[in-house]
Write a structure and sequence with these properties.
The chain is built from 26 helices and 4 strands. By secondary structure, it is mostly helical. β3 and β4 form a beta hairpin. The two termini are about 40 Å apart.
Amino acid sequence: MPALGDGGDITASAERRLGDSIIRHLYRDPDYLDDPVLVEYVQTLWQALLAAARARGELPPELDERFAWEVLLGRDRSVNAFALPGGYLGVHLGLIGVVGSGDELASVLAHELSHVTQRHIARLITQQNRQTPLMIGAMILGALAASKSPEAAQALSIGGQALVVQNQLNFSRDMEREADRVGFGLMAPAGFAPQGFVGMFDKLQQANRINDNGSWPYLRSHPLTTQRVADMQTRLPVGSAVQTTPTLEHTLMAARARVLARPGVEVLRQWMAEPQGSGFAAQPAARQAAILYAAVLAASQLREAPAARALLPRLQQAVQGDARAVRQAALLAAEVALAEGDAARALNLVPAGSGRPELVLAAQALLHNPAAVQGAQDLGGRLQTWVALHPRDAGVWQLLANVWQAQGQRLRAVRAEAEAHVARYDYAAAVDRFKAGQDLARHSRSAADHVEASIIDTRLRAVESLLREQAAER
């Protein structure tokens, strides 16, 4: 089948600007979660799918260059994921916690990615050609908020139109089938088992029959049909298994998502006690590892440090032989020590590596000890290198600001704070911090500060221009 068409009247730049305006609000949502471990896991799947889309010609260069291709996590227990204008993808922790394997999670990401690459969002927005971009953006926010509460939807939508817009923005069956077909084609080239699509469809069908009680919004925004399910099944090679085997790392990440979704104190206590239950020994090895991971993290969340420390050796024993799972257990051990307030121990437990979780944990541990962070000159360099490669990483920009502040580099700290605001599209706050930097630079006699002041002046002019554009769009 050919693609259904181009993006209609809306350009890639306009779609990106609309997406930016929506994301600016989602960054402020209390449910927004920047968990380095889970973000890295989902981003690894997402980047593999993007690479496959480029290789297959599904991702036009214009979209590749102009769109954000960013994943945001929501601390929400509902099973949901959604594509937004401009290449943004939202994923609820409830989805990560329920999928049976990384292949199943990748199938959802591939489907949503295909909605973006095939310009489905742009074409639907074109159908709303009587509405202004601001109106459309506000109504999309209202539709997203409706999955949490009608009150939130009413607050975010204009004129109480959230329900109408949800129906208008739901993709047509033709678009759903196209996203299935294109997404399925990305799975194998990206290194995932195509069976993940069928396995995910089976879960959705079962939930539709048994328990579509509002916790599965994906069912309503992506309605399944017999034809869609059958089409995915017939695309599998004859005789191939329907289900995929989850990796040990995925079972740990699913457990992490379930704990971080805030299920409640009683549930956390149940999970913390589960390794001592009579049925624990009868569980498969991978399931035991997931139970132990959830128990350790739940104990840490409940500030039960002795219980968390007591369970850690059992977790580390359970994941031996799997390098990725061993790394996740080591990161969790460092996280537990940091939550307990033992920064020195946490720093020693951070595994060697250049990943974002290691970098963030090391910075957080050092910041607990002012004397140590002042002597850790290489830390600022590592953080700088990271933001140079990932300039929209607001969390690392803020960490860099804290490190520079602790090291007495006040002007650089102010600039990093401003860049953190820029990364979250809060241009007004960024301008305020850049101007504060200018005031600070006027009273400095340091040659290094003169260089920093020049950078601040340049960035201030650029961000003021962005702020004017943002104000004009309102």
